[in-house]
Amino acid sequence: MSYDRVRATDPAVAEALSGERRRQEDTLAMIASENHVSAAVMAAQSSELTNKYAEGYPGERYYAGCDHADAVEDLAIERARELWGAEHVNVQPHSGTQANMGVYLAVLEPGDRILSLDLNHGGHLSHGHPANFAGQIYDVEQYEVDADTGYVDYEGLREQAEAFDPDVVVSGYSAYPREVDFERIQGVAESVDAHHLADIAHITGLVAAGVHPSPVGVADFVTGSTHKTIRAGRGGIIMCGEEHADDVDAAVFPGAQGGPLMHNIAGKAVGFAEALQPEFEQYAQQVVDNARALGDRLREHGFSLVSGGTDTHLVLIDLRPSHPDTPGGVAEAALEEVGVVLNKNTVPGETRSPFNPSGIRAGTPALTTRGFDEAACERVADVIARVVDAPEDEAVREEAAAEAAALCEEYPLYAGDARVTDTA
Ligand SMILES: Cc1ncc(COP(=O)(O)O)c(C=O)c1O
Fold it and tell me: Using 50, 70 and 90 to split pLDDT, how confident is the model at 424?
């Protein structure tokens, strides 16, 4: 995309936009929640729908002139229903967090109880962290992963649920590399008469492609982000059975939000159509194969992975056993210097501050979009190992940066896409 029009009125922003585009082209995006959407999704997101107010739902808007907005939202809903097999879909949440807020508002009163995974064990802020609205409005207890295996401690969860008597049990995580047993968590929720919210923010694409078991039709509510593994327009989504449809819709609008971001909903519709193509299944499978290859190679280099490996799109590295003097923040910064962009992350049994925790998290969705295969991911693992082994070593950094740059060149982002016309 050319930023000439932006440049004509706002050179400073144009420069930042061009810079960001170059950054994405010239570095390896390994933040597990990120991806690169297609030119079509991006074009839809920057369409004139950004101008439109469409409070309400298709066919029942509070404003005139909503025909095209209705068409787009109906398409997004229809495609989502096909992708995930959901009875009812709401595509209006502005983000994954807003989607969770929509579910809480639909079924909880202030002071009601949420049982969710601890942030340090892979949970998400919106599952009830004290710094988030959910932790401030609701009474939250958190469960953990098993200290030895790194897998969700399902038995501990059951015991905790019996003692705490929650109104909502949350499954689905931010930094959990293993398959989630949604059926088992549904059983726990049912046994204490709680609702089950499965937040598949990270794994929406893996679930849609059938490479991770689906909670749709199992959990009462399923929420997600639409810009992560599913690679659609930025935002959130809620899925549920018909019996909860009205409550969820009212909770999203007018409960939690005003006018929907119709341009993003257009991006969701386009991305969902892309994900319905058969190639998307191959993409999602490759994401997982790549994460396994990355993890296996890191283990060969002596790194310790939480849970010993991965079934998903990410690996969580606990640096303490292999690199006790290298906190996650130091590793993250050194890797960014050489063009590998991932994030520091807390790990189960965290002993450091969340600002410089003991782990790093690395995901393969964006690399796979660039065309990376297992062999390319092993080369990335070699780069990570070299840099984390010697984060201060200039010669190592130079060599690692050259290898990262070579990978970017071999697997160009948006290869051959007409969008890449801006040379500034
Ligand atoms: C499990 C989980 N839920 C919700 C969210 C929030 O999504 P958003 O950033 O779209 O609000 C995230 C973000 O990474 C997440 O990992």
Answer: very low
